[in-house]
Write a structure and sequence with these properties.
The chain is mainly α and 170 residues long. It contains 8 helices and no strands. InterPro entries: DUF6584 (IPR046491).
Amino acid sequence: MPLTVTLARVDADLAAGRVPVARQRLRGLVSSYPTDLALRRRLAEVYRLYGEPAEAGRWMYLEEDRDEGETAAFEARYRTPPERMRALAWRGAEGLAPSGFAVEQLTAVRAACSEALGRPVDWDSVPSARDDGPEAGGGGLSGFLVGAGCLTVLLGMVGIWVYGLIALVG
């Protein structure tokens, strides 16, 4: 469906009070057109109707006239650079951004994410949640417990197999 038709439907949804439907349509458009800041701004406006400053801040993050309270709420919800990078849902190079401010913001988030992960990242290969840090791969106590549980199940299965083999031979 063409962009203009979908935006007309968004306007109709909002006029009819179908805010969740309008939000879903806008999310789809932002996914299809990630470099269109006007779509991000419209989505932020819908989240304001919901009273969700963190999400409004998320979608206004690349705008110079953004609300600082919303920006702070976004940064509090998405605390790490990899979380912010995923949340911004940008695709392509920073240079595709239509404003200098957006380019600066995207560059800063990507650089912080690269520093946090200890390797270069780009917007077309946004790191997954499991890449967020040294413990994200299963380190620490939780990783040990998962490994111990798997080992216990494996040993139980081997024991059953050996018992069955002995019963078969005996």
